[in-house]
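Give me structure tokens for this 464-residue protein.
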Amino acid sequence: MTRTIMPIQRPCNSRTSFRAPALAAALFLMMASITGVSTSLAAETAENYYRAGVEESRQGRWEAALTQFGKALELDPSFALAQANQGVAYSQTGKHKAALVAFEEALHLGYDHPELRYNRGISFARLGLYEEAATEFETALKKDSRMVKAIFDLGLVYTKLDRNGDAREMVNRLYRRNNKLAKQLYDQIPPDYHVVSVDNGGTLEGRVTLAGPVPRVRSFHLIHAPNIQFCSRMSDGNGHRLLYDFTVSGKGGLKDTIIAIQGVKKGRPFSRQMQKFNIARCHSDKYVIAMRNSEDIVLENTDPIRHEIATYEFAGSYVKQRSNRAVLPESSQVRSAFVRHDVDEFLIKCNLHPFLQTRAFMVDNPYYAVTDEEGRFSIGQIPPGTYEVTAWHPFIPTQKGKIVIEPDGKSEISFEFNSEDVRRKLYHDDLEGYRFQPWYDSFENFYGGERVDDPVEVLQTFRE
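Here you go.
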């Protein structure tokens, strides 16, 4: 287990009183009488030792804490909190069998608490008793469902018991409470997909087309652009920055559609090369990509200006921003595409330059392809079997189909979308007029001095 174990404690002035067994109580009274020490004084001394033990625990001096808790229990065997904290100290010094004895005695004395159950579960897990550990963590969560450390460690124990589905449920519980812990747990759960050699795999080929009028290009008016010396050098020449959501060939082939085969449990490995979100002239070189959950992606900024790159996850009408950090000029950084379990779309976008974006479809196996300029695709080395195929485009309802892959065979499937089903929200599509900032026509920098533009100008064209 990887979580920090904290002492089980309560404010010293609110210590719970428990009755000692009759024989122990009699011996205690006898010793107090013989030594001339009153029971109240003995109890006060036990409390002092307990307080000293708690302080040693806070300082991480666990052996010293054990000594203090031991002295408290010698004077007051019914001191349940001292017994429970002694169990924690034993656990922290690696004496997990002794810890379990102490925790059991605390329970016998009537002290039961979520932290005690959690620490007891830690000791069971350290001894390889995973069923018992799971029971203790589950009990802790029944008493306090907000214990993120118990959720995390229960997920780890489930992986030891080959209960990976239950472990993923713990990821789901952690996702909103502690996203960093959720990802850490997710990365330790064995994936459902397994890499094996494929000696008799088949091939899937096909084409995606779009029927009906091609949806209009999206236009972003550069009157809003914050970096006119650079961003404005890529436009239609009149201040309209164009983003082609739908690129359709003369024969109706739809580019940038992801074809993903669902239900493949084993086969070839994912590519070992990290994917890149390449930024050049406020433009991404890929409109769509496929990503697996928790995959890392490199954000590579070759521009001489800063970009504010944000990531978003989509699940139906649910949209949530996952990250938002600056990518400095001519630098790179790594982001993780860790998303909620039901998310199927991931967006990488610049909040300063919204026309800079790439949309990703989440996949759980490497059998996918992106359609080319003619809408064609090909996927190879597919293990024989019957599968469902998904055709995904960001702004049109997803289509599905069935295929059968024969050993060393070739299968085909095609999809036709209709432009009447396009589901884009309202965007600027006004391509008329002059949309540059007033400063664009000035030879002076907005902040003073001579303006120095990017020497390369890229003219975009509107395609019907």
